Amino acid sequence: MLIRKLFKFENAHIVRNCSSERCRSSIHGHSYRVEVLLEANALDHGQMVYDFGLMKGTIRDVVDAFDHAVCFWDKDDAEYIRLCKQFSTRWIAMPVSPSAEQFARMFFVIIDALLQQTVMANGEADVTLHSIIAHETDTGYAQAFRADAVNERMGIIRLKDVVFSEQCQAEWKDPEMYKKLLAGSHFSNPPVPRQVEI
């Protein structure tokens, strides 16, 4: 079974080397919608694949870091990167271009790691990340699956190469969350009292 959680954020970027002159030459923004699709072959004690409320924690914090931020490819012009950092407290450096395709892949890599490092507490079984859909516009989106996230021909995305500004990190519920993720620390879902025994 699949479930889907939708997140929204506003973000600015330049997509270098793309075919559209406006997109490759001018900083511009989009109202993004990111869909996180999870799958499982069993349901938890609440008869859910994964409680939507749990996705309002670290997953939402990661996605929300992109809201009102500027994203740039870490291989872009050094002066452009310097100015992005100087004039925006909210920025994210990416090891790939900030296209819809790469957003989908990058969110897959980060959210997949978060899920793998989360200790489940309510009978969740084999919950995995199915795919990420990143809507850049009302008519255009990219969908990334596991094979895409690790496809070296599309560019390598390592967690340590995605850099969040201090301001983005400060606004997380746990400002140390990404450092913990990089260190392989576990995240624990809250324990749930059983009200009905099956």
UniProtKB/TrEMBL annotation:
Enzyme class: lyase
Keyword annotations of the record: Lyase, Metal-binding, Zinc
Pfam families: PTPS
Pathway connected to this protein: Purine metabolism; 7-cyano-7-deazaguanine biosynthesis
Coiled-coil features, chain-numbered ranges: none
EC number: 4.1.2.50
Keyword field contains GTP-binding: no
Catalyzed chemical reaction(s): 7,8-dihydroneopterin 3'-triphosphate + H2O = 6-carboxy-5,6,7,8-tetrahydropterin + triphosphate + acetaldehyde + 2 H(+)
Keyword Metal-binding attributed: yes
Domain of life: Bacteria
Cofactor: Zn(2+)
Classification via Gene3D superfamilies: 6-pyruvoyl tetrahydropterin synthase/QueD (3.30.479.10)
InterPro entries on file: 6-PTP_synth/QueD, 6-PTP_synth/QueD_sf
Family membership noted in the UniProt record: Belongs to the PTPS family. QueD subfamily.
Protein name: 6-carboxy-5,6,7,8-tetrahydropterin synthase
Species of origin: Iodobacter arcticus
Lineage: Bacteria, Pseudomonadati, Pseudomonadota, Betaproteobacteria, Neisseriales
